[in-house]
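Annex B. Sample input.
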Amino acid sequence: MNHPQMLTKIDVSQLADAFPMSMRTNAVEAGMVVHGLLDPRQWANQVSLLVGGEKILVPRRLQYSEAQSAPSNDGRIAQMAACLQTQSSNGFDRQRALRSLLPAVQPWSAPFVVTLIGEYVVEIIEDIAGATSPSNLDAMILFISENTAYWKLTKQRVASYWNVYYRHKYTKLNYPGFQLVRTLETGLRARAT
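Annex B, continued. Sample output.
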């Protein structure tokens, strides 16, 4: 895993880079939708990950203009825009976008879902834990198996945020982040055999 690159401006092409090249036409369209919603000033990371053996560059902590959201429809472009919105600097926006992805996590949307497991907003983690259908788990496990260093970092974040924010409320056994990690780890071991 490479060190994240900081971006102060983001263009449509950089947003489209968050998806595999086989989806480039739709990714550019989704990038245009999201780009129109972004604040012109950014201070975002770009993280290099793999999907299907292909490198993607996911922007993290995108700054959206106030009171803006992507058009809602059920098409692939809307789903791709929702993926990008899971990287908003606003936790409510991340959760809203995530909820639109959870009915059917795809291999190309799994990076955006898995990333949120390692965040501090327990309500988002609870949403993911509540949507662990076999097909969603398969997509997330496939992503994790290709990105082992990133998964290790995600697990460290789960432990760190539990320790700082939730230790007083949850034990390690009942914290949703640890429960989700155990579920995914079990799936990873089963996939390896």
